Amino acid sequence: MKNLSSAEIRKMFLDFFQSKGHMIEPSASLVPHDDPTLLWINSGVATLKKYFDGTVVPKNPRITNAQKCIRTNDIENVGKTARHQTFFEMLGNFSVGDYFKKEVIPWAFEFLTSPDWIGMDVNKMYVTTYPKDTETQKLWAEVGIPQDHILKAEDNFWDIGEGPCGPDSEIFYDRGQEFNNLSEDDPENYPGGENERYLEVWNIVFSELNHLPNGQYVEQPHKNIDTGMGLERLVSIIQGTKTNFETDLFMPLIEDVGQISGKKYGEDAENDISFKIIADHARTVSFAIGDGALPSNEGRGYVIRRLIRRAVLNGKKLGINGPFLYRLTPIVGKIMESYYPEVSQQQEFISKTIQQEEKRFSETLDAGLALLNGVIADLRKNNETVIDGANAFKLYDTYGFPMELTREYANDEGLSVDEAGFKENMEAQKQRAREARGNLQSMGMQDETLMEIKTPSEFIGYDHNETQSTLKNIIVSDKEVKSATEGQAQLVFDTTPFYAEMGGQVADAGNIYDLKGNQVAEVVDVQHAPNGQNIHLVNIMSEIDVDTEYQLKIDTDFREKVRHNHTATHLLDQALRDVVSSRTHQAGSLVEPDYLRFDFNSNAALTPEQISELEKIVNEKIWAAIPVKTEVLPIEEAKKKKGAIALFSEKYGDTVRVVEIDDYSTEFCGGTHARNTSELGLFKITSESAIGSGTRRIEAVTGEEAFEYLNEQLQTLQETAKNMKVNQLKDAPSRAIQMADEIKALKRDNQNLKTQLTNQKSAEVFDNVEEINGYKVISNIVPADMSALRQLADKWKNDNSSDILVLGASGDNKASLVVAVNKAAQDKGVKAGDLIKKISKEIQGGGGGRPDMAQAGGKNPAGLTNALQLAKDIIKSL
User: Fold this and answer.
1) Any idea of the CA torsion for 44, 46, 49, 52, to the nearest 10 degrees?
2) pTM higher than 0.70
3) Is 34 a residue whose pLDDT tops 90?
């Protein structure tokens, strides 16, 4: 075998399949685009679903890619096994209805064994096949795989539910007896078993069947090839390393962690696990943040947060205190920059984001330790020795404590952990996730009817609002027909002015007429057919026939408003880069006739000043009456010559349509736009909000809608000024400030009166001292609120009025409790927090606090008397 670097292997794979007529599909973002079934892109085929389910027909049916992926379903195994990683690359070659077994098997053999490519020893190769797939077994033998190296396995059938499926064939490489980690008679000691000797290299799926909802399997109209080869595994084989982690993809990271920690990789098995976890997670979070995902408490953000915390905890095991993970981002970037330059390009932002999260976790870690110490204290008090599974899982799920850390702390205290209970809680969480996710990951069925329609159809709507066109195809109930008289149908014309929904811009509305001017159909939606035509969904009003000419007319008022709002999104996009950050990018948009919606990446809400500045910039461009120019250019020329901005989630062809607004905004865009910015009239932001972790949304209006919005705001202000007894609008702000000050003063006076009343009451409260079980106890219900109760507790503490204080109060159908305990009573085991938890149930509430003071709230004031009596009963039993 050749001695190759990871970058050389990746390039060699893509070069090989390009030489076989494949189109190289660039790696997509890890954040899925228009696929709600996936949290992350988790396979090479995930970004190609649109081709395999027939939604889109690719320009070239032969595709190859190197796709970055994230999987976290086996996160606990990372570092403990030779192969598990959260971030990895999948190399793949794909055929969408083109070649099949007779081509792909010889190609796989050639790439792996030819001295011109990888140069593997064929005698060390094994393949597994589906027992009934005799054709595949024959083809492997014909290319040169020894007959006794062609194995049959029942599980060699790829099926994830409804949709495409079929037999598959896996390729294994025998790394030799020196890598064998099992005994010779172990049932897993074979190619395909769980062992380190026979390493799976490649999986080839022959997607030839459809799994129907009724459980039946039928042949697909187009048979496909889907392959996947993990780059890290292949590199491990070629570079002769024991695990993936000793390859050039990981070792520079591991060596740097060694310098930071002062520890050396390979000297201690437990330390090695931490080295691997840190290296893996550094890659994952660097790429994920670079693709626009940010740490948070939900979804993708939670994954990033959890990985950073696991890395930090493993850093602590290596003796690293304080933020360090962020220092690895430049190394990740350098390792991967030959094919993924984005990490190096965004190095500063990624490092800063990771560092901030590391600092936050140090605070969370302290809170988690406080919870753990509290659990341990309760166990000792009750003479128990096992941390229950629910608390262990809470430490894991809320505070990022892996089980091994909780176990370590427990062992130090002479305790154990209910690991079975922990696993039950973990499985319950996974089950909830599975139920929420359902079977959505299955690919959709191929729509053979639409896939077979290849009629040329030209969109002329950039320059025409109506046209006379010939109807070429009618589809009713998924069947092509020659005519239709009623109901809904899908229509394809040879030319059309109707814009198909794309890039956030909604489809045109309008009508279809016969040449006599009679309306024959209403256009309710327009989408792209698999082969790219604009396909019109219509309500039929009278008979329509193929090969007949019709008049197509869009709703021009609808189109004009959409055009204006679309141009406004381009201006807003650039304004956000100017005002917020040069790294700000679009995360989605919707362009309707009456408003626009623009999503963008940001960790923080926009300030009022930033919103005002955005509006000012966009309106200045509108009032400058700038011509909006469009030009179709080769994509590389557009990038270099024009500096056009492309969306990271979009795929582009060889030529692109560039929309240019002076030298301010230049973007790739296939949508319709104003001819001049002055057509927009006015721009106004109506809202700014968070829609998810690290993503915010602006909604805005232009033109007539902007005027109406501002008019409504003015009317609201006028009504408010009238109610405030202000004659002129300009005086409203100062009057509002004045009224706020007056209200503040009244609240202060009210609080002072409450304090005076509390002080007067305190003498009565503190005079009533009971002796219970050797403790001096004061308990009473007073006419006060929680703030007053806390003041009484502070005065009680200063006066040292008793050992234990239990006070209750009610108001607004709510109940409040405060418990305070002096130092002497605490030393005897009385804890305010423990007492309040027990008695707060009487007021149908809950609470907690410190050993010296705790408080609770509830919704049952009638239970206060019982709560105070229960407190006395508990003290009696101490």
Assistant:
1) 40
2) no
3) no
Distance CA(821)–CA(823), nearest Å, equals 7
Closest CA to 373 of 381, 98, 113: 381
Tokens coding 551: 């008049």
Please indicate, yes or no, whether residues 353 and 267 belong to a single structural domain of this protein.
yes
Residues 550, 564 within the same domain: no
Residue type at 707? F
pLDDT for residue 180: 86
> By C-alpha distance, which of 85, 233, 103 is closest to 173?
233
196 and 265 inside one domain: no
Average pLDDT over residues 262-284: 94
- Tell me if 797 sits within 8 A of 762, measured CB to CB: no
The owner of tokens 């190399």 is 91
Residues 6+ apart with CB under 8 A from 734: none
d(CA 545, CA 471): 7
Q: Which of 219, 244, 269 is the last residue of a domain?
A: 244
33 is in an annotated binding site: no
Q: Are residues 484 and 569 in the same domain?
A: no
Residue 744 inside a domain? The answer is no
211 annotated ligand-binding residue: no
Full residue range of the structural domain in which residue 695 is found: 559-713
CA dist., res. 793 & res. 799, Å (int): 10
Crossing angle of helices 6-19 and 101-113, in 10° steps, is 140
Distance CA 387, CA 371 (A): 12
Q: What angle do CA 544, 548, 549 make, to 5 degrees?
A: 105
Does residue 188 sit in the same domain as residue 329? no
Tell me: do 130 and 13 sit in the same domain. Answer: yes
Tell me if 480 is assigned to some domain. yes
Q: What is the DSSP string of 695-758?
A: EEEEEEEEHHHHHHHHHHHHHHHHHHHHHTT-SSGGGHHHHHHHHHHHHHHHHHHHHHHHHHHH
For 439-461, the pLDDT digits (tens) are: 434 454 556 788 888 889 999 99
| 193 and 56 co-located in one domain | yes
- Asked, for residue 678, whether it belongs to a domain, the answer is yes
SS3 label, residue 864? helix
Residues 140 and 230 grouped into a single domain: yes
Give first-to-last CA distance, the chain, whole Å.
77
Count of the separate structural domains present in the chain? 6
Q: 442 in a domain, yes or no?
A: no
